[in-house]
Design brief:
Elements (H helix, E strand, L loop, with lengths): L3 H11 L6 H10 L4 H21 L5 H19 L11 E7 L7 H12 L2 E5 L6 H11 L3 E5 L7 H12 L7 E5 L5 H7 L3 E2 L3 H14 L1
Parallel strand pairs: 1-2, 1-3, 3-4, 4-5
Helix pairs in contact: 1-2, 1-3, 2-4, 3-4, 5-9, 6-7
This protein binds cobalamin.
The site of cobalamin has 41 residues, from α3, α4, α5, β3 and β4.
């Protein structure tokens, strides 16, 4: 059964009771819940419901924006509880939301979880072109790339990154992992990427697999 305080975070986001989100997140931490649990079951599920209500016309774009902003405010509270630098460095991951797409919350969560688990994260931000991702892979020597995509109209941007890596002669060296609401295993195969992860915890597991194989 879901913890009551996590459910309260989810419900506060769902009902747009946004003034209370940060204090509810703090309450979860005080009760000993981990940032990962709060993110996955509280914040993630709450935003999912807001997204669905936006889809059915119950909520407006302004609601979506507000929910996104409040979650951004809550992130530093969670970040303070994560422990970057404790683990030994496992490798460098380049993270970006693909060209044409400005959703960043999921990408930021993936970034926090990776850096809390020993990865050096180079976050290029949102709406990032394939060429700047591959230029960064070249200049940093990073071999792990995480792409976030939430808009189904922009998934072609994933293929552009795969193609840019090929054109740069780096396709065999880099591992391109995709995630975000509109992605799937099938899309991963279609775009020629290396792996698909549904959650930020999956992202960690997948990158761990690749960094061990390297
Ligand atoms: C918040 C939000 C926004 C905010 C973003 C704020 C911000 N700073 O990021 C704002 C208001 C700006 C926004 C704008 C738009 N949005 Co919007 N948005 C959302 C919403 C409600 C939540 C997204 C979110 O943050 N979820 C929470 C995070 C934690 O989840 P996540 O991103 O999926 O990430 C998790 C996993 O997917 C995974 N993951 C994420 N990235 C990666 C990467 C890797 C490598 C891996 C392994 C895993 C992984 O880990 C995360 C944690 O577990 C979704 C609804 C939904 N159900 O997704 C719509 C949604 C994505 N938006 C949508 C739309 C249409 C838009 C707009 C086009 C609206 C408009 N008409 O203008 C614009 C897009 C502008 C643009 N060019 O990008 C649609 C997309 C439909 C589609 N399939 O294409 C959705 C699905 C809403 C809907 N149901 O219609 N949006």
């Amino acid at each position: 059964m879901m913890n009551g305080s996590i459910a309260a975070v989810r419900d506060a986001i769902d009902t747009l009771d946004l003034d209370n989100v940060c204090s509810l997140v703090q309450k979860c931490l005080d009760e000993g819940l981990t940032p990962e649990e709060i993110i996955e079951h509280g914040i993630g599920q709450g935003l999912d419901i807001v997204g669905k209500k936006f889809e059915t016309g119950e909520y407006f774009l302004a609601d979506l924006i507000m929910a996104g902003e409040v979650v951004k405010e809550a992130m530093p509270i969670l970040k303070r509880r994560m422990n970057p630098g404790l683990a030994s460095k496992r490798g460098t991951v380049i993270l970006a939301t693909v060209a044409g797409d400005i959703h960043e919350i999921g990408k930021n969560i993936v970034g926090m979880i990776l850096s809390a688990n020993g990865y050096e994260v180079v976050d290029l931000g949102v709406d990032v072109s394939a060429s700047s991702i591959i230029d960064t892979a070249r200049s940093t020597g990073a071999r792990l790339i995480g792409l976030s995509a939430l808009l189904s109209t922009m998934v072609h941007s994933i293929r552009e990154v795969v193609e840019a890596s090929r054109a740069a002669g780096l396709r065999e060296q880099v591992r391109i992992v995709i995630g975000g609401a509109c992605t799937s295993q099938a899309l991963c195969a279609e775009m020629g990427a290396d792996a698909y992860g549904e959650t930020a915890i999956d992202a960690l597991r997948i990158f761990n697999g690749f960094s061990q194989a390297a």
